[in-house]
Amino acid sequence: MHRIDQLTADDFAPYLTKAFRPAGTDLELTLSSIDQREFPGWEAAARRPFSLILRGPHDPVLPEGLHHIVIEEGPVLALYIIPVLTAARDHQDYQIVFN
């Protein structure tokens, strides 16, 4: 993979449905989707912003922060993960934003 500031949504496409495991935890998150919505003014950005949406168990919740993530069949990356409001009671969603 490229340097973190050069990664694109296409770099993560092969890892859809793959496990993202935060180092030092027993949690297994799954890459459920890649959000590539476009907003005005982004056409001038050095790269097209995108977000990774991950799904994990309802409990425990991984705290927001920088985590070393071991990607199934992929690299280990330091990524800033944010738990997001999840209405469902059977899982917890997370977001990783690249902008």
Overall domain count: 1
**Counting H and I runs of at least 4 residues, what is the number of helices?**
1
User: Widest sheet: strand order?
Assistant: 1-2-3-6-5-4
Q: Tell me the span between the first and last alpha carbons.
A: 17 Å
Structural class: mainly beta
The major sheet is characterized as: 6 strands, antiparallel, barrel
**Gyration radius over CA:** 13 Å
What order do the SSEs take from the amino end to the carboxyl end, as H and E?
A: HEEEEEE
**Percentage of residues in DSSP E strands:** 35-45%
How much helix, percentage-wise, in residues?
under 10%
Average pLDDT across residues?
A: 93
The protein's oligomeric status is: single chain
**What is the approximate shape?**
globular
List how many beta strands DSSP finds. Answer: 6
Which regions contain 5 or more consecutive residues with pLDDT less than 50? none
Folded structure, characterized:
By secondary structure, this protein is mainly beta. 4% of the residues lie in helices and 41% in strands.
In short:
The protein has one helix spanning 9-12, and strands at 19-22, 29-35, 50-56, 65-71, 76-84, 92-98.
Which tags fit this structure?
99 residues, mainly beta, single chain, 6-stranded antiparallel beta barrel, globular, 1 helix
